[in-house]
Amino acid sequence: MINSKEIAKIAGVSRSTVSRVINGYPNVPQKTKEKVLEVIKKYNYRPNYSARVLSGKKTNTLGIFVVSLNRETNGIFRFNLFQNNYFGPFVDALIDLSNSNGFHSLVQIIYKKEEFSKMVDTFAEMRIDGGIIIGLDRKERVILDISKTKIPFTVVHYDENFLFNNVEQDCSIGLVNTMDYEAGVEATEYLVSMGHKNIAFLSGRFTNYSGYERFRGFLTVMKRYNLPIRRESIIHGDFLLYKTEIEIKKLINSKTLPTAILCCNDDMALVTLKVFKENGIKVPEDISIMGFDNIPFAEYSNPPLTTMNLPIYEIADKSFFIFENLTRKKRPQNKNFVYKLPMNLVIRESVKKLG
Predict the structure, then answer these.
(1) What is Dmax (Cα atoms) for the chain?
(2) Quick one: pLDDT band at residue 330, thresholds 50, 70, 90?
(3) Cα–Cα distance between 7 and 2 in angstroms, integer?
(4) Taking the alpha carbons of 6, 7, 13, 17 in that order, is the dihedral positive or negative?
């Protein structure tokens, strides 16, 4: 990566002149300023934040990056970080861990792919000692650009093979995944054990790690018992509540209800419960519902929701542990930090046992 000394040499000015241009000092001739800015643009130069602001010292800052795409409805972004049952507790736990261990926290929320460059810049300009990224699609390639900055990072819920086969090899990297495939298997096995054969799956996004792996687990069990997988059995909710409501209403109007629906997260399961209640369909008497994640509201829904528990605080704890170790260069030789955390079944009252 080019530095300010090389920029100065190419522009034919002193290094201090480059610094004055970057910092916006007025005592630089316009022609000189334009020449320096032209070279900066040509070589895509990014000032070294820690060197410029903190004189080469560590920033003592953890970067937390929340990628929340597909949150737009009619041109309006409908997303509140700390009201989100997935991102909110995770970020809250990370900030708490960061504060209690003497670090600052920088939180960025990315709504569009066009904003990925801001995330990359935060790494490249060394505003942080390391980053934790959550919410990316399972093979999103911006990770490759981040790895080129050589700043340590941890990614949550991402494809392991794609990550370690494509990133820069000399970049310190951590990965925290949950065992979503195994959870998908366990959830579907539970429904089968309760006598259900006509099971629908309310999907998340298949580009999402958890959405893809949970669906794979569902398919494995359905094939294992030779149970029917019809086109109408796959309901595309995409983790979006308004879309879930539309699709469940379509299902009701089709007059072909399954005996059970496995929902890819609890938020969609709660919307499904709401729509059924509004249409006079009783859960679990008329149809069984099961979710994933075990969000706080799941216990208090009517009926209380059977679900798979997502260990969100353990995910945050492992992510921060990796951040601390990578930034202190304690990575095991020839080994990256990888954690795969199990999910467990939480049985409540939303699944009926069939005769």
Answers:
(1) 86
(2) low
(3) 7
(4) negative
What number of other Cβ atoms are within 10 A of residue 38's Cβ?
12
Percent of the chain with pLDDT over 70: 90
What the chain holds in terms of domains, given with CATH numbers, is 4-45 (1.10.260.40), 61-179+312-342 (3.40.50.2300), 180-310 (3.40.50.2300)
Q: Could you report the per-residue pLDDT of 193-218, keeping only the tens digit for each?
A: 999 999 999 999 999 999 999 999 99
List the beta strands (DSSP E) in the chain: 61-67, 72-73, 76-77, 104-110, 130-134, 153-156, 173-178, 199-203, 234-236, 260-263, 288-293, 306-309, 337-341, 344-346
| Inter-residue contact 5 to 15 (CB < 8 Å) | yes
Residue 56 neighbours by CB distance under 10 Å: 10
Which three-class secondary structure state does DSSP give residue 209?
helix
Q: Which residues contact 316 (CB under 8 A, 6 or more apart)?
A: 89, 90, 93, 94, 97
In DSSP terms, 109 is beta-bridged to 66
Single-letter residue type at 153: F
pLDDT in tens, 23-72: 666 678 898 988 999 998 888 887 665 454 444 567 889 999 999 886 54
The pTM for the full model equals: 0.83
The H-or-E segment that residue 87 falls in is helix 87-100
Residue 186 and residue 288: Cα distance in Å, rounded?
16
Rounded to the nearest 10°, the torsion over CA 162, 165, 171, 174 is: 50
Is the pLDDT at 250 greater than 90? The verdict is yes
- Cα–Cα–Cα angle for 278, 284, 290, rounded to 5 degrees: 95
Distance CA 153, CA 151 (A): 6
Starting from the edge strand earliest in sequence, which strands make up the sheet with 173-178, in order? 104-110, 61-67, 130-134, 153-156, 173-178, 337-341
Q: What are phi and psi of 289, to 5 degrees?
A: -130, 135
Bin 298: left if φ > 0, else alpha if -120 < ψ < 50, else beta: alpha
